[in-house]
């Protein structure tokens, strides 16, 4: 019964995307709502529409009351790892695998690689600028 919470990546959560196994993310917390699908006052279809995804905005937009917020604890299974956090737009995630291949550690921090890339661009920019003058 440790206090530490289980960490999941977005791709791990996204595998739980069916009516037999339905996880959703709300405000960086992961909820297993499989058993709640039939009981949700807003219907199972809206939950299944968000299955395996970040439903923070959708959850807030509905204006869920305190009853709904209190229920969240019941379904809590862990958190999404901030280091593996990505926007829900699919465009950016496409970059991640290509960068991971270049790095031998699976725990590699892509932010650091992006920083190095930015630094390289800046340094080359300055060099080019200097030689042009
Ligand atoms: C674990 C997550 C969720 C829980 C525990 C939950 C719980 C509830 C509860 C208790 C209500 C009744 C009204 C209230 O108390 O505010 C409700 C209504 C509703 N929920 Fe959720 N909800 C969850 C996620 C979602 C998501 C992700 C969506 C949208 C994609 C959604 C859409 C709705 C809608 C549209 C209603 C209104 C139904 C109506 O008034 O006819 N819910 N929800």
From TrEMBL:
SUPFAM superfamilies: Cytochrome b5-like heme/steroid binding domain. The chain crosses the membrane at residues 112-129. It is found in: Endoplasmic reticulum membrane; Microsome membrane. One of its GO terms (molecular function) is heme binding. It is a single-pass membrane protein. InterPro entries: Cyt_B5-like_heme/steroid-bd, Cyt_B5-like_heme/steroid_sf, Cyt_B5_heme-BS, Cytochrome_b5. Its main location: endoplasmic reticulum. Keywords: Endoplasmic reticulum, Heme, Iron, Membrane, Metal-binding, Microsome, Transmembrane, Transmembrane helix, Transport. One of its GO terms (cellular component) is membrane. Residues 5-81 form the Cytochrome b5 heme-binding domain. PANTHER family: CYTOCHROME B5, CYTOCHROME B5-LIKE HEME_STEROID-BINDING DOMAIN PROTEIN. Belongs to the cytochrome b5 family. This is Cytochrome b5 heme-binding domain-containing protein.
């Amino acid at each position: 019964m440790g206090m530490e919470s289980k960490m999941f990546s977005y791709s791990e959560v996204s595998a739980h995307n069916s009516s037999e196994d339905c996880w959703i993310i709300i405000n960086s917390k992961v909820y297993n709502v499989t058993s709640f699908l039939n009981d949700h006052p807003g219907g199972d279809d809206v939950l299944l529409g968000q299955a395996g995804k970040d439903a923070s905005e959708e959850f807030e937009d509905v204006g869920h009351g305190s009853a709904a917020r209190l229920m969240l604890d019941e379904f809590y299974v862990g958190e999404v790892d901030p280091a593996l956090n990505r926007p829900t737009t699919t465009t950016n995630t496409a970059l991640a695998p290509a960068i991971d291949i270049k790095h031998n550690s699976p725990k590699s921090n892509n932010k650091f690689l992006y920083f190095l890339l930015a630094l390289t661009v800046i340094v080359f920019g300055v060099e080019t600028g200097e030689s042009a003058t």
